[in-house]
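Q: Given only this backbone (274 positions), what sequence would you predict?
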């Protein structure tokens, strides 16, 4: 029996045994099951600024975890080894209870909670949700680093457990988002809803020849300012990676120029990878 995964706008229609576009969700006996539940590909105690979050508990550390899978197809992916991987990825098992136990133990080293990051954490929605509830019970914080490609109902259900989120806004045209296998309006909705509930920061990677015009940055920052003018925007420099090695790195002066454009509308604008 086929079944539709309704976690994101792709709405993959899967036959029994078939895996979705994200490589992390499959039809098992007529039900959608997360193949990456409790399967970690990465575990590290990171500075909060690395997420990046600049205005949420600055100077602190956060236990950062990743799994495998992603529901976009960015040709410049910085973590393709795990984001483009499936169930054959090398992982270690870690239950929500075990993860929270690690997080609590690491408080003595400055840990403030758990960050779900590295791959696209929302394709492992059930694990993030289950961990997040336990993290809050332990008095710690939940941080989410995501592409924001999720349907409204599951996003609203998760947000009460999230304290801070960094959402990738990969550009401000539908054409660029289609190239990446995404949907701009979905991400805009995710940012808008999150801004009503928790601390939000946004990251835009500037790819030469794709999303590097002043007009596009002006439109992006004007829209973001209308959501909330105090949302920090991180403007990041592209480097050739994965399947996009035919482009030069973004000129540093381009990143700085676009940051100045964004500052016309936004209070907090940061540059990255420069």
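A: Predicted residues:
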């Amino acid at each position: 029996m086929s079944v539709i995964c309704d976690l994101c706008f792709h709405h993959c229609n899967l036959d029994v045994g078939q895996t979705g576009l994200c490589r992390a969700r499959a039809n098992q006996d007529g039900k959608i099951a997360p193949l990456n539940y409790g399967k970690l590909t990465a575990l590290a105690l990171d500075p909060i600024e690395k997420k990046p979050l600049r205005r949420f508990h600055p100077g602190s550390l956060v236990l950062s975890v990743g799994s495998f899978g992603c529901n976009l197809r960015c040709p410049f992916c910085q973590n393709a080894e795990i984001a483009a991987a499936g169930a054959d990825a090398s992982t270690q098992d870690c239950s929500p209870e075990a993860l929270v136990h690690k997080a609590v133990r690491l408080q003595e080293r400055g840990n403030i909670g758990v960050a779900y990051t590295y791959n696209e954490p929302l394709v492992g929605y059930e694990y993030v949700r289950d961990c997040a509830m336990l993290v809050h019970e332990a008095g710690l914080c939940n941080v989410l680093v995501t592409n924001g490609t999720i349907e409204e109902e599951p996003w609203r259900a998760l947000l009460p457990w999230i304290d801070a989120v960094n959402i990738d806004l990969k550009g401000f045209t539908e054409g660029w988002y289609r190239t990446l296998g995404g949907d701009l309006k979905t991400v805009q909705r995710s940012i808008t809803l999150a801004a009503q509930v928790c601390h939000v920061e946004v990251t835009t990677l500037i790819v030469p020849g794709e999303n590097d015009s002043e007009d596009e940055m002006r439109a992006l920052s004007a829209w973001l300012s209308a959501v909330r003018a105090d949302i920090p925007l991180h403007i990041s420099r592209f480097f050739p990676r994965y399947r996009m090695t035919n482009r030069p790195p973004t000129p540093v002066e381009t990143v700085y120029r676009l940051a100045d454009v964004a500052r016309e509308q936004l209070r907090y604008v940061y540059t990255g990878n420069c």
